[in-house]
Structures are given as C-alpha cells and as structure tokens.
Amino acid sequence: MKILVINGPNLNMLGIREPAHYGRETYADLVEKIESYCKEKGIDCECYQSNHEGCLVDKIQEAYGKFDGIVINPGAYTHTSVAILDAVKSVMIPTVEIHISKVEEREDFRQISYIRLAAVKTITGLGTDGYLRSIDFLSDYLKK
Ligand code: DQA
Questions:
Q1: Does this model's pTM top 0.90?
Q2: Which of 14, 54, 99, 123 is spaced 20 to 30 A from 132 at the CA atom?
C-alpha cells in the first residue's frame, strides 16, 4: 500500500506558527512521526509540502497510477481551491482531508472546504495525531 501525504501552505512553519492552534511540533517532527508510523504498519509513504497551489496540483496529478491513497492538509487552500478539488477528482485516488486544528470551531471563512467534496473522510482537531488516524482510516478503507 502506497500513501502520499500532502501538506499545503505554511505547514512548513509548524512549531513556529500559532502554537495554540497547531502545537509545538515542527514539520520535520511531523514527517518523522508519519514515516515511523508507516514503517511500523508496513505502509509505503511519501511526504510532500508546498506553499504553491500549482505544485500541489502537479503532485496530485503525478500520484495517478503510483499511489493507492492520499492524505491531504491543503492548509488555507482548503477554503479557496477548486483546482486542488478538481485534481483529486481527476486522479480518483481515495483521499482523506486532515486539519490539525478544529476548523469547525474557528472563523467563518474556514467553514468552507472544497476538498471535502472529494474526500472519503475528514479528520479535524486531533493535532498531528490526525495524520496517523487518517492513515489508519485509509488503510482500512483500501483493504475493503
Ligand atoms: C489548517 C486549517 C486551515 O484553516 C489553515 O489555513 C491552515 C491549517 C489545519 O491544519 O488546521 O493552514 O488546515
């Protein structure tokens, strides 16, 4: 099983940005946590981060035929990007939407999620553990 974990803009600033929402772990800590969890579970994974919408679209397109599942935190593009939604719909790879913070309890502009329209599951508010729960969900989903 091959899973691609995609993080969008400003998630490379984890550990520095708004710790009350996103905690103290850095992006490097997050990658290490995901990689060691996947290793334990016998899952092949690749982590990718970009601040650029087009690069995120390219990465999703490149996943076609290569990955069985996608875990994506599109960051602020969650609330604006039809292009990322369309990319996920194009490749038809089962995708879990994950947010570190509890977006549903935050500002009104965070209540819209385009990616949700293509996601098989959404996980919010569990901190970086949400990535591991997303991988668990995908791994069960893909075995069915
Ligand atoms: C986020 C929530 C988004 O609203 C925000 O723009 C982010 C991070 C989260 O993980 O909680 O960059 O996706």
A1: yes
A2: 54
